[in-house]
Design goal:
The complex is a heterotetramer of chains A (551), B (350), C (236) and D (97).
Chain A: H1 23-27, H2 32-60, H3 71-107, H4 115-137, H5 151-155, H6 160-187, H7 200-232, H8 245-278, H9 286-299, H10 315-343, H11 352-375, H12 377-383, H13 387-417, H14 423-450, H15 466-496
Helix pairs in contact in A: 2-3, 2-4, 2-15, 3-6, 3-7, 3-8, 3-13, 4-6, 6-7, 7-8, 7-9, 8-10, 8-11, 8-13, 9-10, 10-11, 11-13, 11-14, 13-14, 14-15
Chain B: H1 14-47, H2 63-92, E1 99-106, E2 109-114, E3 119-121, E4 123-127, E5 131-138, E6 143-147, E7 152-156, E8 162-167, E9 172-178, E10 191-196, H3 198-205, H4 213-223, H5 226-229, E11 248-250, E12 256-258, H6 261-269, H7 292-304, H8 321-324
Parallel strand pairs in B: 1-5, 4-10
Antiparallel strand pairs in B: 1-2, 2-3, 5-8, 6-7, 6-9, 9-10, 11-12
Helix pairs in contact in B: 1-2, 4-7, 6-7
Chain D: H1 10-30, H2 38-58, H3 67-93
Classes of the chains: A mainly alpha (551), B alpha+beta (350), C mainly alpha (236), D mainly alpha (97).
Bound molecules: heme-A (2 copies), dinuclear copper ion (CUA) and copper (II) ion (CU).
One heme-A binds at residues 48, 51-52, 54-55, 57-58, 78-79, 81-82, 85-86, 89-90, 144-146, 390, 394, 397-398, 402, 440, 454-456, 472, 476, 479-480, 483-484 of chain A.
Chain lengths: 551, 350, 236, 97
């Protein structure tokens, strides 16, 4: 945890990194920027844990027979992979790291509205994470990340209650982050920073916060019900006692569908900033992009039962949910078209963040369009619970959200660390990730339509699935390398990277108007905003980049 | 044509064509969309790459464009939605007169029982060209009955029946998967559906049976004492069950429900829940006293005594041979031969 | 729980009663705190919303059994508890007013009575729980609900399994409500101590105000729990 | 919150309090009267009335607070109704055929 404190600071200017040293100055900090770094370290840890499980799964699936791990182990692997990646990596990733760092900077505030709650939120996350790790090391859980009853309540003998509690606690961390953002965006904007001047990153986080606030409590209480049913033998979901296991699915997806927009909306916000900066343009259709974020957040709550089309719900209800699923796709379409239109007549630079943004555009579009397949009732019946689903959501979550996250990390790295990352390596990594990604997950679409069910550790009855699985596993290793690279050169650049100027990209946005890294209270004097967002006509192209290309 | 394409699942049911048609339509539409977007991206990226001295042109946005690219996708979405819904309703409404197979799923096997009484494990034999309706329930957790070649999938829930149907079009052996995660051996809960020519099927059928399921049910009906109350002469303390199935039933609380499989099941397990108008609530609950298989037999029996004058009710495969699939002829005696070696779970192999 | 963190926030405020470093002016700070509380209450609505959802579905399915089970609750105690909470809401609103108008005695007395009423609520709830325990109406191995007549259907008995669902929901819903009460009591005890020390002034009383919001919210939840759980099918 | 109403609000507070107690009494009594399906409607109607009174007057949504507070309340209720309504839509139509 004390890792970032070891960065030597050749720049004498006092900033949030060099103001104080020592473990406690980090663990008890209320500075949103330091908390963001605490989150960065912790979610990176969980990402690699989750990724490690993914690699083990892919290795198991290399051959049809179940030869590397036992069935039990495999079931725990995908469960822990799903839970960790969703609840401990992707949901906190952009909001808690980049959002935490940037929301106050972008709205021109000195900190988030409730700095202590912000710190508490990190501690809750860590408590949840430690419980999750403990649960994992002492046996794990084997229900899949979806916890379906009655398997989870009455049949499995793994540590459901503990895992549930871990997610419950992490959920509160997420709620508190959302609460802080909403209040900050409403109450802490700098003079002149009207709603229509907010960066779209802020709009995206505002929409995300709505979901965090209104969705998360429902999964919290659902987990309480599962834990109570399990521990106290109550009858709520157990059909033997007259309960309805499908009710569990309703409650679970009421959160977990909107949760997928918690994962994608912030990435959309990041990509919007990057596209504007690297095509040196105001974003096309600002207000449409802004309101489509809100629309996604609201409509996102209306579609949850599209995960339950074959679960035994009423077919009329299925009809409604299918229709609504298409309604939520419209605002996503609006965003994609506006991003594309922004490039038109731009002056486009191909720095690493932009490469990631391009990757995001392509992969999110593909993932989203396959979502349309799933929302079509007739097709869903065939492909649900197959690898088609696995491919769909990895395209959006890994291809979309993680790409967006990496793009954002590169874009704001100079601001966060005060150093430049090595541009050449970064472009290479972006390329490797893109190639590895497609190699891993494209074959899974084919597998899925051919009928390979998900959560199978052994497909020896259907050896015809092997070729595609081998491709996928090969891709996963490439992908792993692609993810390790940024990790390495970011660390490297903290010591050896060239010092960054305050605004190395010549980007618009308040965060670039303060020092890199920013001082503890963000701005030396309170900013007063008199210009519109994305005023790129007033900004020159990035200075002849003095970014060293590592050779 | 598609069946020779190695990356395409086999088409072996009437639904497969419908699903694939929609899928191909979607592939084309989304393919075109992808192409359009990628072309724009690449073209813009190349055409408008940064050149020294050339500045970006600031464009605010355009309401007509925004409307265009919200409304057109929405219209396309609606086409997909309606088409998808149409296919789904076909998938979800079993045709009347389908042959019936009772499925009991448990960790980690499929137990299947034909209305004629054949029992199988992890293997289902059906004739080509016949509508088959699966009446499914689970003994423990949620499973899902998935036959990719039929493009058919339905979750199987504990505590109630779910229904699915198919009509096989091509003889062969097809994968049967459990698609809903159900515990350790989820991936071992696989089997096959054997689609046979009618004549072969007939031979297989005669291979062994304990008699039709409804006969088992009839026996149970007497053994469990149902017949003491439910008598055929309307003299019993309970309603006469003849002709009840498939008909609307007037309930005590004023509602009217259709007597389907789930209704009968509920009547047996939870007689207090939906009470028939005009009767005393004296029927005891059989919860815990009958197994899922026995329940199926009872349901099949109650169905069979309603079958004579109602075309809407499922019949045994033989009884429907003429009506459901005129193109297929099956000659057989109406009574399957009773076999002595009928183990309850011996799966039958040709 | 977030509630305790709001407490943390107040700590900060005491050390610099005027203003926290990152706010521009006291009004901004007050507005932020109040908005924060309201937003938090919105999440609480959804938290209980999941329970209400489950409750409504089962109540619709098993109306008779739920009615029978509901009849075994003590509606008089339930009504008394409702009245107790309503009285405490009055004292809370008085406390807020007293803090704003610098009426120290009224503030202390109101906070004190609120605490007492809260305790009384929990006490009565405890009595009810005890009764349920004695009657074997607590779900689990010793649960028994044999031969309980169905309301409105002479000669018929409720299905014990469905009644058990009612009691499961009853205990979870009232239990979580009671947990909120306990947190509220802690909050108000702290407010009482601060008020005793004279921390609250007409300029600075946000903690009393947002503590009050929380208390009223918990009251509203009970206002719904009472008819839903106790009064399903009471008439003879 | 910065309410500067000149007259003391005490009268109103006590008035609301009495109303709430009365309502409680009425629900309690009404539950024992046979009203058929209206029993539930009456009970929930009164509960909603009470909750509204508490929110509007004790929590000051009516008077002092600004639009944003009202918005938060409305949004919370809206999403609650979505949860209840859309899940009921499944249960209410399961038996259709
Ligand atoms: C970040 C995560 C994320 C996102 C954003 C989405 C977005 C969407 N998802 Fe996805 N989804 C998941 C993550 C995500 N999903 C996960 C994790 C699961 C599985 C969970 C599990 O079971 O474990 C899942 C499962 C899932 C299912 C259930 C499958 C099943 O189990 O049976 C469905 C069904 O409708 C679905 C649909 C959609 C749709 C319609 C969208 C839409 O929002 C997509 C909208 C975007 C576009 C449509 C692309 C851009 C639009 C255009 C370019 C317009 C032009 C197009 C035309 C004119 C055709 N998803
Ligand atoms: C944010 C979410 C997220 C992310 C980022 C990922 C990332 C990946 N996922 Fe995951 N996945 C899910 C969310 C996610 N997944 C979910 C929700 C499920 C469903 C679970 C369920 O069914 O319940 C799932 C399920 C799932 C399956 C299906 C399992 C099954 O149904 O049987 C597979 C199979 O290929 C898979 C693969 C991968 C791969 C290869 C990656 C790769 O992108 C990972 C790449 C990263 C690395 C490879 C790490 C690099 C690290 C190293 C190289 C270091 C090596 C290790 C040490 C130092 C110890 N995932
Ligand atoms: Cu049975 Cu999976
Ligand atoms: Cu979804």
């Amino acid at each position: 945890m004390s890792m970032p404190t070891t960065i030597p600071q050749p720049v004498e200017r006092e900033n949030y990194l060099n103001k104080e040293y020592g473990v406690w100055s980090w663990l008890l900090t209320t500075d949103h920027k330091r908390i963001a770094l605490l989150y960065l370290v912790s979610i990176t840890f969980f990402f690699f844990v989750g990724g490690f499980f993914a690699l083990l799964m892919r290795l198991e699936l290399l051959t049809p027979a179940g030869d590397l791990v036992q069935a039990d182990t495999y079931n725990k692997l995908f469960t822990m992979h799903g839970m960790i990646m969703v609840f401990f990596f992707l949901i906190p990733s952009i909001p808690a790291v980049l959002g935490n760092f940037l929301v106050p900077l972008m709205v021109g505030a000195r900190d988030l509205a409730f700095p202590r709650i912000n710190l508490l939120s990190w501690y809750l996350y860590i408590i949840g994470g430690v419980m999750m790790m403990h649960c994992m090391l002492t046996g794990g859980v084997d229900t899949g990340w979806t916890f379906y009853a009655p398997f989870s309540t009455n049949f499995t003998n793994t540590k459901i209650v503990e895992a549930g509690l871990a997610i419950f606690v992490a959920g509160f961390s997420s709620i508190l982050t959302g609460l802080n953002f909403v209040v900050t965006i409403h109450r802490m904007r700098a003079p002149g920073m009207t709603w229509s001047r907010l960066p779209l990153f802020i709009w995206a986080h505002y929409a995300t916060s709505i979901i965090q606030l209104l969705g998360t409590p429902v999964i919290a209480v659902t987990i309480v019900l599962v834990a109570a049913e399990r521990a106290l033998h109550l009858g709520i979901f157990d059909p033997k006692l007259g309960g309805d296991p499908v009710l569990f699915q309703h409650l679970f997806w009421f959160y977990s569908h909107p949760a997928v927009y918690i994962m994608i909306l912030p990435a959309m916000g990041v990509v919007t900033e990057i596209i504007a900066c690297f095509s040196r343009k105001r974003i096309f259709g600002y207000s449409f992009v802004a309101f489509s974020s809100i629309a996604i957040a609201v409509f996102g709550f209306l579609v949850w039962a599209h995960h339950m089309f074959v679960a035994g719900i009423s077919i009329y209800s299925a009809l409604v949910f299918s229709f609504l699923s298409y309604a939520v796709a419209v605002p996503s379409a609006i965003k994609v078209f506006n991003w594309t239109a922004t490039l038109y007549k731009g002056s486009i630079h191909y720095d690493a963040p932009m490469l990631y943004a391009f990757g995001f555009l392509g992969l999110f579009t593909m993932g989203g369009l396959t979502g349309l397949f799933l929302a079509a009732l007739g097709i869903n019946v065939h492909v649900t619970d197959t690898y088609f689903i696995v491919a769909h959501f990895h395209y959006i979550m890994v291809g979309g959200a993680v790409m967006g996250y990496l793009g954002g990390m590169h874009f704001w790295w100079p601001k966060i660390s005060g150093r430049l990352y090595p541009e050449g390596w970064a472009r290479l990594a972006a390329l490797i990730v893109f190639i590895g990604f497609n190699l891993t997950f494209f074959p899974q679409f084919l597998l899925g339509y051919m009928g390979m069910p998900r959560r199978y550790y052994d497909y020896s009855h259907m050896p015809e699935f092997q070729v595609l699985n081998v491709l996928s596993t090969a891709g996963a290793t490439v992908l792993g390398v692609g993810y390790l690279l940024p990790m390495v050169y970011f660390l490297w650049s903290m010591r050896y990277g060239k010092p960054a100027s305050d605004n190395p990209w010549n980007a618009a946005g308040l965060e670039w108007k303060t020092a890199s890294p920013p001082p503890t209270f963000n701005f030396d004097e309170e900013p007063v905003v008199t210009w519109e967002a994305y005023n790129y006509e007033e900004l020159d192209a990035p200075h002849k980049r003095e970014v060293p290309v590592a050779r | 044509m598609l069946n020779n394409f190695p990356l395409w699942p086999e088409q072996a049911s009437t639904m497969a064509g419908h699903v694939d048609a929609l899928y191909i339509f979607l592939l084309i539409v989304t393919g075109m969309m992808t192409l359009l977007i990628f072309t724009c991206l690449i073209f813009f990226a190349a055409r408008f790459r940064h050149r020294p001295g050339v500045r970006a042109e600031q464009i605010e946005g355009s309401i007509p464009l925004e409307i265009t690219w919200s409304v057109i996708p929405f219209i396309v979405f609606m086409v997909i939605f309606v088409w998808g819904a149409a296919v789904y309703f076909k998938e979800r409404t079993p045709p009347s007169g389908a042959a019936e197979v009772y499925v009991v799923a448990k960790q980690w096997m499929w137990k299947l029982e034909h209305a004629e009484g054949q029992r199988e494990i992890n293997e289902l034999h059906v004739p080509v060209g016949r509508d088959v309706k699966m009446i499914m329930t689970s003994q423990d957790v949620i499973h899902s009955f998935f036959v990719p070649a039929f493009r058919m999938k339905q979750d199987v829930l504990p505590g109630r029946y779910t229904v699915a149907w198919f009509r096989a079009t091509k003889p062969g052996v097809y994968h049967l998967f459990c698609a809903e995660y159900c515990g350790t051996q989820h991936s071992g809960m696989v089997g096959s559906v054997v689609v046979m020519q009618p004549a072969q099927y007939e031979a297989w059928m005669n291979g062994g049976s304990t008699g039709p399921l409804s006969a088992t049910g009839e026996k149970l009906f007497a053994e469990l004492g149902c017949s003491t109350c439910h008598r055929a002469d309307a003299q019993g303390r309970g309603p006469n069950l003849q002709g009840v199935f498939g008909k609307p039933v007037q309930l005590e609380d004023g509602r009217t429900v259709t007597a389907d499989e789930n209704y009968v099941r509920e009547c047996i397990l939870d007689p207090g829940g939906k009470r028939v108008k005009g009767f005393q609530p004296i029927m005891p609950t059989f919860q815990g006293l009958v197994s899922e298989e026995q329940l199926n037999a009872l349901v099949a029996y109650i169905k069979s005594i309603s079958a004579d004058n109602s075309g809407a009710v499922g019949k045994t495969i033989k009884a429907t041979a003429g009506t459901a699939a005129p193109s297929v002829q099956i000659q057989s005696s109406t009574q399957p031969k009773a076999q002595t070696n009928a183990q309850p779970n011996g799966s039958q192999v040709q | 729980m977030p509630d305790s963190t709001l407490v943390g926030l107040h700590h900060e405020e005491q050390h610099h009663p005027e203003l926290l470093h990152h706010f521009a002016e006291p009004q901004q700070q007050r507005d932020a705190a109040s908005l924060g509380m309201w937003v938090f209450l919105a999440t609480e609505v959804m938290f209980f919303g999941g329970l209400f959802c489950a409750y409504l579905i089962y109540r619709r399915w098993y109306f008779g059994d739920f009615g029978a089970a509901s009849k075994t609750l003590n509606a008089t105690l339930g009504a008394t508890n409702t009245a107790v909470l309503i009285c405490s809401s009055l004292t809370v609103v008085l406390a807020v007013w007293a803090a704003k108008t610098a009426r120290r005695t009224l503030l202390l007395v109101s906070l004190g009575i609120t605490l007492l009423l809260g305790l009384a609520f929990l006490g009565i709830k405890g009595v009810e729980y005890k009764d349920k325990f004695v009657e074997h109406h607590v779900p689990g191995a010793s649960f028994s609900f044999d031969k309980v007549p169905l309301p409105g259907h002479p000669g018929q008995y409720a299905n014990p399994r469905h009644a058990q669902i009612f009691f499961s929901l009853y205990f979870i819903m009232t239990g979580l409500h009671a947990l909120h009460m306990i947190i509220g009591l802690g909050l108000f005890l702290w407010l009482l101590i601060m008020a005793w020390k004279g921390r609250f002034t007409p300029e600075y009383n946000t903690p009393v105000e947002i503590g009050g919001l929380y208390w009223h919210f918990v009251d509203i939840i009970w206002i719904y729990l009472f008819p839903l759980l106790y009064l399903i099918d009471r008439h003879p | 919150m910065s309410e500067h109403s000149k007259s003391s609000p005490l009268k109103m507070y006590f008035g609301i309090w009495i109303t709430l107690l009365l309502c409680t009494y009425i629900t309690y009594k009404a539950a024992f009267v046979e009203l058929g399906q209206y029993n539930a409607a009456v009970a929930l109607g009164i509960a909603t009335l009470k909750a509204t009174l508490v929110a509007l007057f004790f929590m000051h949504v009516w008077h002092a607070s600004e639009k944003l507070t009202k918005l938060v309340v409305i949004v919370a209720l809206f999403f609650l109704l979505l949860l209840l309504g859309l899940s009921m839509s499944d249960y209410a139509t399961r038996l259709w055929s």
